[in-house]
Amino acid sequence: MIYQVWYRLYKPSYAPREGHSLACLPLVVPFPHKEKNYDRDQFTFICLTGRFTHWQDISKGMLWAYNLNYMDWLLQDGLSYEEGARWIERFIIDLPTNKIGQDPYPTALRIINWIKFICLHSDSIPEKTRLDWESSLRAQVDLLTRKLEYHLLANHLLEDICALFIASVYLSDETLGKKASKLLKRELQAQILPDGAHYEQAPMYHCILLDRILDCYNFASANVDRLNSKSILETLREVLITMLGHLDSIVYRDGSIPLVNDSAYGIALPYKGLRTYAQNLGIDWGPIPLGASGYRWLRNESLEALIDVGNIMATYQPGHTHADSLSYELRIQGQPLVVDTGISTYDKTPRREYERSTRAHNTVVIDGRSSSQTWGGFRVGRRAKTTLLLDTDSRIQARHDGYGKSCIYEREFALMENGLKVRDSIPHNHAVSLLHLAPGIRVLSTSLTEVHISTGAIIEISGATEVRVTEDYISRYYNRKEQVFVIEFFFSKDIEYYIRIS
Q1: pLDDT for 54-100, tens place per residue?
Q2: Whether residues 278 and 306 fall in one domain
Q3: Which of 415, 431, 381, 425 has its CA nearest to residue 498?
Q4: Is residue 155 part of a domain?
Q5: How does residue 302 score in pLDDT terms, banded at 50, 70 and 90?
Q6: Which residue in 332, 336, 402, 415 has its CB near the most CB atoms, within 10 A?
Q7: What is the pLDDT of residues 390-410, one digit of tens each?
Q8: Which residues contact residue 304 at a Cβ distance below 8 angstroms, ignoring those fewer than 6 apart?
């Protein structure tokens, strides 16, 4: 609360200052190229395309404007030095009046992207140009130092600190380096769970931050003489080993991430790219068993079920958390069958509220309520507490109190040779157990005892009072909605269904 008040009242300003030209930093390996999202003054971010008008264009939402100001498109494959330099020069001119560009999060990402661009094109940059850019760069670093996002914490603060660390190496700033290294060690310890997951429990953000820590290690290991302490190198390496181990353990067999909590495709560097980046940096790691993150797998040769039996770990900043206790995703023969609704927007809209609600997940809803109270786009009030009762390679059993101490909901998953069995139990009341089918999968027929779907799978049901099929949308990418069918099993006290593959 103190930091939120301070952030609203304290308004540091951007003020360029003189710097001195520095030699280009050596890198251990080149940085991975970013997705192509710029072409001749036209930008595509979060699946929305528009021409450049000004840096504070929020006509497509604040996230689109933020992406514009990140300037990671400077690093896309095929972008010439001349084109990138043109945009940097334009940005410097406009920055004093660009309030969005002065926000700490886009400032942090842009600092990193500018430094990368300078390193990639050092042979092409005239001395005067480098001096001008470094003058602005130092001013942006100063601004960020005074606006670190202690009011938001979590991934925002970690990105801020990574930017300061990389800038301290580039600028050979010992004072900044000491501060950044101290903060980086502290936040990595706080935000990385024992099983290597980022504590916001969203695989997309885990990948984003893993990419960033790899950047920090890349700069640090190639410029040891500019570090105030070599211990930061070992810290980064240890964290990377655990984060990479978690990534190996959380992805599907095809390398795609589960779209649980705030996760979408097309934002983070893909699994293969992250592995290649880490391997090129000489990092060795192995899978780490899933634990504190709350995710579990039930797997055999034909089936992959990712199950969420966790509690909110980023207790003070659960902004990317959904009310999805005991929900799951299911793939058969590598193809999605039961899917999470995903996220389509960060705007504070009814759609955002719905995508975070229990109704949007593959779990049980009682009396139309959510198991945790999600609100305001990025807030969580009352929270379900999950207790893991059984945790084996073939059976998982857990319960939560999200519907009150007198209405404990219990769920059991059993991995069968030819499918997945799910049992739901509540002490009283009436409830509905939901299944969101993947896009393109149709429901062929329904009864109180069986549902036939177009993949050939049959869902055998015991205990349903009614079975309904409705239509909804899921979002695997920002601002894209795909129509799907949702199966609703109404029951009282107990229901069991068996998704049996043919």
Answers
A1: 999 999 999 999 999 999 999 999 999 999 999 999 999 999 999 99
A2: no
A3: 415
A4: no
A5: very high
A6: 402
A7: 999 999 999 999 999 999 999
A8: 252, 253, 297, 298, 330, 331, 334
Residue 315 is part of which domain span?
Answer: 295-500
pLDDT category, 456, cuts 50, 70, 90?
very high
Do 415 and 348 lie in one domain? The reply is yes
Domain boundary among 292, 314, 344: 292
φ, ψ (nearest 5 deg) of residue 41: 70, 15
One-letter-per-residue 3-state SS of 247-272: HHHHCCCCCCCCCCCCCCCCCCCCHH
Angle at 147 between CA 180 and CA 43, to 5 degrees: 95
Instruction: List the structure tokens of 230.
Output: 């070599």
Residues 58 and 70 in one domain: yes
Asked whether residue 411 is domain-assigned, the answer is yes
Nearest CA to 118 out of 57, 60, 68, 169 is that of 169
* Cβ partners under 8 Å of residue 344, min gap 6: 351, 355, 473, 475, 478, 479, 480, 481
Side chain identity, residue 60: K
Query: Average pLDDT of the chain?
Result: 93
Closest to 404 in 3D by CA, of 367, 434, 441: 367
Categorize the per-residue pLDDT at 35 as very low, low, confident or very high, splitting at 50, 70 and 90: confident
Quick one: DSSP state of residue 59? Answer: T
Is residue 193 within 8 A of residue 253, CB to CB? The reply is: no
Question: Does 164 reside within a domain?
Answer: no
Question: Structure tokens of 37?
Answer: 């999202």
Q: 137: which 2 tokens? A: 């760069």
Q: How far apart are CA 501 and CA 453, in angstroms?
A: 10
d(Cα 486, Cα 475) in Å, to the nearest integer?
A: 14
175 inside domain: no
Is 233 within 8 Å of 216 (Cβ atoms)? Answer: no
28 phi, psi to nearest 5 deg: -70, -50
Is 345 in the same domain as 492? yes
Question: What is the Cα 257 distance to its own chain's centre?
Answer: 10
The percentage of the chain sitting over the pLDDT mark of 90, rounded to a whole number, equals 83
DSSP, res 372: S
User: 324 and 402: one domain?
Assistant: yes
CA distance 267 to 244: 18
Q: How far apart are CA 74 and CA 114, in angstroms?
A: 8
How many C-beta atoms surround the C-beta of residue 385 within 10 A?
A: 13
Helix (H) or strand (E) holding 221: helix 203-222
Q: How many structural domains comprise the chain?
A: 3
* 8 A C-beta contact, residue 284 and residue 238: no
